[in-house]
Amino acid sequence: MNQASLGRNGKAPSPAEPAGTPAPARPQAGGAPLPGNVVAHPEEAARTSALPAAAAQPVTPVASVAPAGPATETARAARYAPAAAAALAMVVLGVWGLARDSAMGNDEVATRWAAVISLRHLAHLLNNQDAVHGFYYLLMHGWVAVGSSPAVLRIPSVAAMTVAVALVAVLTRRLTGSGWAGLFAGLVMALTPMISFYAQTARSYAMVLACVVAATLVLVQALSAEAAGAGGQRVMRWWLGYGALVVVAGYLNEMSLLMLAAHAVTVVVARYGVAVVRRWAVTAAVSVALVVPLVLISVREDNAVGWIPRPGLTALRVLFHDYFGSATVLAALLVVCAVLAVLPFGAGPGRPAAGAASSGTAPAAQAPAWWRGGVSLPSVAAPLLVAPALLLILESLVARPFYVDRYVLYGAAGAAMLAGTGLWRAGRWLAGRFNDRLGLVWVPGVAVCVCALVLQLGPQHRIRTPASRLFDFGGPSAYVAANARQGDGVMFFGNLFRKARLGYPQDYTKTTDFGMARSPEQTGSFRGTDKPFPAVHPLMLDHQRIWVIGHVPSPRLPAGLLRAESAVLQQNFRLAAERRFKGIVVTLWQRR
């Protein structure tokens, strides 16, 4: 599975010239020299290293150059197995506990309701709030033709996260030339509990992550084509594909545009010339311009994010575990592996990288000296890990807070790529220490991945329970459905909890929401509006039983509608039942 990569001259890098050392500058298609390193395609490495040293000819370092003959089954397996294995792990983790006892959280209820209402009502909703999620809601509007149960609503997120994990493996292998590095990167990401959390959430974040990783992969391909002096049409196709993915990610969530800060670092560090930087900048600018209409609408609706606090140390701790795992010991170990991926040393002094002899290829590429130019795994993964989150945190400290960890979830891809590469490098070092015993290359990576699975089984289980979200709207709704009588009234203390009725309308068919003045469809919101107390008071007294969803009626509630309604309930009704769920209390009041 370990695939080798070549230096820019088509030969294996010697101990005196570490891989990643820039080759002499050669003219670009426009005449400008392009310094730096681009990892050669592994199949090219295998084909070239099979020739005698004197007969080996330079190869073009572009991933899309076809091998001389048909690929063998072994070569195909080595090429696709890492991504396939990582994707399979993500599928298993995504399907495990997907239904979550039919419980939906706050955001998932919003997704379901926005997906099932008519397009006219959806347009009314987006004109008032949640425009930032409009493209995702439109996609889900088509998906609910398959079904609208919680498990079915989450399938697109599972599929998107599976694609993201596979692309992380592909990108890591592309940049290191090693199938082992790609496999470990994909598995590290798949086994991270927060990745499973959003894979099983009917929201856009998994799709955003997939788009960002895909855009990063296409950027690497575009830079490789630029470095190889490919024809203008071919290079233009890569840039167009890159721009399209940036736009799609932007419409799924505008915070994804922060990936451009990471990509800017990658392009500048590559030092491929002013023309290449200009082409990237133009592509990025056009992509951002196409997303500006969404940005302008969301600015008008920024009251919807007024709940976001300024980030502190707790936010940094949460983000650290989002990226590197929930177990502190494991997360610290993966950080060490990530650092190992960036450090400038090879497999061992004077030795070829482990894996070269058995694979019949040139020695695997040492860690590129990324600061010397070229495209390398550190120059791609490290900016993706650091830049978006850092910028959003700094902005939230000095201006209006917009930082939420899920908005920069895609930084987890950079963390996984670095950790997976560090595990591969540790395996190469271990093999070198034991007389190049090639079978040891995989030992550190497999050991850490097994630890990642075992140490995080508890958190993985918890995120598949109804209590894993801030609110559980499914439990209260099922409880009401099982115990309600025809003609019962229902009141929502306060109107945030009316989302329970939006998410599970079939559970409230026996009850009447007599306190609602205007429905969510009419107001273009998820809550609707409540009637004033003088209008609600006589309606309360007309009911023998009233269900209260949300807060427990109490004179200690803030002055206003809820305190006044609480007084009526306590004076004219008795508490018949009480049941607590995550974030929501259900009480039943019987007329005295």
Mean pLDDT, to the nearest integer, reads 85
Overall SS class: alpha/beta
What is the C-alpha radius of gyration, as a whole number of Å?
Answer: 28 Å
> What gap, in angstroms, lies between the N and C termini?
75 Å
Classify the beta-strand content into a percent band: 5-15%
Q: Spans with pLDDT under 50 lasting ≥5 residues?
A: 1-68, 346-368
The amount of helix comes to 55-70%
Identify the overall geometry. elongated
Strand order of the largest sheet: 4-3-7-9-8
Main beta sheet, described? 5 strands, mixed
Question: How many helical stretches?
Answer: 24
Please write out the topology.
Elements: E1 26-27, E2 33-34, H1 42-49, H2 73-95, H3 106-116, H4 119-128, H5 134-143, H6 150-176, H7 179-190, H8 193-199, H9 205-227, H10 232-252, H11 259-270, H12 274-300, H13 313-324, H14 328-342, H15 356-359, H16 377-398, H17 411-433, H18 443-455, H19 457-462, H20 474-483, E3 488-493, H21 499-503, E4 511-512, E5 516-518, H22 520-523, E6 529-530, H23 533-541, E7 545-550, H24 561-572, E8 573-581, E9 584-591
Parallel strand pairs: 3-4, 3-7
Antiparallel strand pairs: 1-2, 5-6, 7-9, 8-9
